[in-house]
User: Fold this.
Amino acid sequence: MKKINSDTIVAICFITLAGFWYYLIKALPNQQPKGPGFYPTILVCCMLFLAIILLIKSLIVGTNVKIELTKKDGIRVLIAVVSLIAYLILLPKLGYVVATGLLLTVLITLFGEKKKLQAAVVSMITSGVIYFVFHTLFSVQLP
Amino acid sequence: MGNLVEVFSLSNILFCCMGVFVGITFGCMPGLTATMGIVLFLPFTFSMNPIASFALLLGIYVGGVYGGSITAILIKTPGTASSAATVLDGYPLAERGEGSEALSMATIASFIGGVFSCVALILLAPQLARVALKFGPAEYFAVGVFGISIVSSISSNNLIKGLLSALFGLLIITIGMDPVEGNLRFAFGNYNLAAGINATPALIGMFAIAEVLEKVETIYKNKVKKTVTVIQGKMVSPKVIKANALNLLRSSIIGTAIGIIPATGTGVASWLSYNEAKRASKEPELFGNGSYEGIVASEAANNAVTGGALIPLLTLGIPGDIVTAVMMGALIIQGITPGPKLFTDQKDIVTGIYLMLLLANVFMLIFGLSGVRLFIKVLKVPVEYLMPIVAVLCFVGAYAVQNSLFDLNVVLIMGIIGYIFNKVKIPIPPMLLGILLGKILEANLRRALVISHGDWSIFLTRPICLGLLILSALSFVWPIYREWKDKRNLINE
Assistant:
């Protein structure tokens, strides 16, 4: 029996997902046999079946997947994700140009640009240009 | 014949030219893809007539698929996934000072592959449309199954995870209204979810944003950016081209065939073709060290996907790959329903599409052979600025599809999922397959069962459907069998 590895966790996640989704199917108002729950049920059963196979395989045969992620790199990714979430929340509140300008500044700095002022200036200009191009040329109404 | 003059109007030609230019630019920048280019320019086409909009989009498509080869050869970084195989032999050639020849070979191979698939499109599409007119729900379901069966050939070594990935894609597409009766499912009272998950923002997220997150993680590794200064303007010798004639033909056929198969695209085509060329080659040891055969195989195949992918799109309304999936959106916006009726009711549009595809390939050849220097300049943009701008452009493009802020959430969530999947080595293309084919599978499965009054044998008694299902079983089993055989051979050696 091999150690618990990433495949094991993946399998467990999918089993959980299948279980959760099955619960959702059972909660549907229309429970007719060939109704809206029919096809999702097939999918969920297949998923459960395969996930169990993956679980067994990961514990018997193991896996050749090695996850290499240092703490520093991981934190950077986390910061990127958090900034993107913040961007989506602030977008309707601050308007496109400002929100995007801020996001770009953060991301450019995250990617390694040391000159913060330059990053900020470029961000604002780019954000403005994008807004102009899409709003005027492509007639897309940005917030 | 008057139609011909209309099709080749100045504005259509200009749009096509611009499309190819934009496409090559997007294609050669790592992190930008043909898909992104199409999505970003999609809003622009709302106000254009159908042929003009296709001139632009096809131009971006053709240029984008080709563009990846430029950076693949010169700086060992494929601009798009479709040119990953080109790196293996293109870069060694560039290191040896034959970069210019390699580039011209890639251009010519791409052109021949593209034109071949265009001819295949012109010849095969009407035939398939005629057959497709006989298609009922059972047959469309079988086509969907066939598309899913491709999972086995793109998940190598990770078949179970690949299948789970596909199921995940299929499952999230069930969110929203069910395709047959309109019952609301899994929407948690959120009216945005009630409309379902749109494929375009989802694929932007899982391919582009996941890529950006990946780059965020790995910035401090691989910092070495080699700038290979080549471009002596030397063309590949005609002898080499002639020697690769069979290779060109085979690769073009592979690319076109992969294009026809729903939802598989240029990435699959180029690798499959590369492997086949290596197996058929008289000098397989050269592969990976600077073999022109490798470049030809990869580039001819990936451009041959373009015409092939249009075949199922136009005849069945089923996208041949990611890009055509987005193009389908463009068609629908114009009020055109893809399917066999297109060939009877709107032949002029179909002809226009054929001709614009051909024109796009011609422009690609021209730009590729003459203007590579210009495209290289684009690479000077530092990654610290490029990646964030890409991320932002992705969001704008996704927003533009439905003017929906909710779609941006889809982009981000799919991006995070894509990033995680990459980390634990769950293949992503199957998830895309699931997303693109989900609605077709369910709608037709249920309709077929309604017609047969619940009798499952309908799928086995209708000949075309049965044939497609057998084909699906074969296409699923074959790669597994091949891999098993290869492993056995390795053990025996």
In short: Chain A has a mean pLDDT of 85. Chain A touches chain B through 63 residues (CB under 8 Å).
